């Protein structure tokens, strides 16, 4: 009985160490701000557009991605007509509004799994 108790305490200590270690790893990486919260720097230079030139008609697509996650297919003038700053050149990708990178999301998922395992361990240990 004592051996089983020592093994369960050992597993609990390892699990607790892993949870604490992963939480420090997640918090040590700085958070990237959303494109809408960055400075007022625009990738495209601001040009004075008259209301007569909006909407923009283009013959060749030149997509840019606005900070609102919408792709403007006629380029910078189209985004400026919509009064939206440009986040990046090229079309917006799915999930572009999020700020977390793929490794950061994977680490967060791993952290959630550890917490769920810890919760299940305590529930089973109490029953």
From TrEMBL:
Residues 1-30 form the signal peptide. Keywords: Membrane, Signal, Transmembrane, Transmembrane helix. Coiled coil: none annotated. The chain crosses the membrane at residues 106-126. This is Serine protease inhibitor, Kazal-type family protein. It comes from Nicotiana tabacum. The gene is LOC107820107.
């Amino acid at each position: 009985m004592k051996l089983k108790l020592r093994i369960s305490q050992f597993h609990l200590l390892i699990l607790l160490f892993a949870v604490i270690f992963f939480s420090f790893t997640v918090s040590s990486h700085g958070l990237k701000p959303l494109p809408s919260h960055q400075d007022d720097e625009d990738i495209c230079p601001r040009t004075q557009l008259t209301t007569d030139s909006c909407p923009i008609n283009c013959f060749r697509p030149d997509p840019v991605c606005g900070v609102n996650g919408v792709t403007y297919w006629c380029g910078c003038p189209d985004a400026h007509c919509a009064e939206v700053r440009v986040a990046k050149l090229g079309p917006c990708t799915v999930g572009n509004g999020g700020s977390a990178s793929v490794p950061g999301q994977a680490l967060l998922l791993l952290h959630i799994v550890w917490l769920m395992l810890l919760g299940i361990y305590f529930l089973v240990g109490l029953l």
